[in-house]
Amino acid sequence: MLVRAITAPGLRRWCRGQRGAAAACFPLGRALLGVRGAEAAAFLQGLLTNDVTQLVAEGDAPPALYAHALNVQGRCLYDVILYRLHGSTAEEPHILLECDSSVLDSIQQHLKLYKIRRKVTISPCPDLSLWAVIPGDSSSLPKCADQALLLTPDPRAEVMGWRLIAKKGANLSEIIPGSQVGDVQDYHRHRYKQG
Question: What PANTHER family does the annotation carry (predicted)?
């Protein structure tokens, strides 16, 4: 899937100022929560708004989904992005939930409340870092993401760029050659302009 060219003037100026930059990478202040186990997708299915079983389906399963966590009455509590870390249906399902770092404990407690007899483990992932990546002049990213745990288009919209999950302290220039680390405020301005 190709990413559309950057539309926010501030990000375009930033990328032009970084001659030769393949991408602008922005560190996000969001947290990751791991849900692992044979029943991970079935467990999350009734608690989130999107069809989580897509993540563990055979064939052309998406690597990421956008969803909202629901309470008992069906009201939205938190917005989350789900990522599939397992490579095939033969592997044990491992799903990451991206959420705002201020609500990590609340989401973890919320999930554990409904975990009754499910064979899943729910744990935060403090050893992982999350990045927003906006491609530079080219419309796609170089495929040198060996150190990346996951590099996928943002599931919300094409103009939001890509999401990168890597080990904390990983060298971004090795993951995406020619990339530059940008100010997260530039990314937020880009997000707000997209609506």
Answer: TRANSFERASE CAF17, MITOCHONDRIAL-RELATED
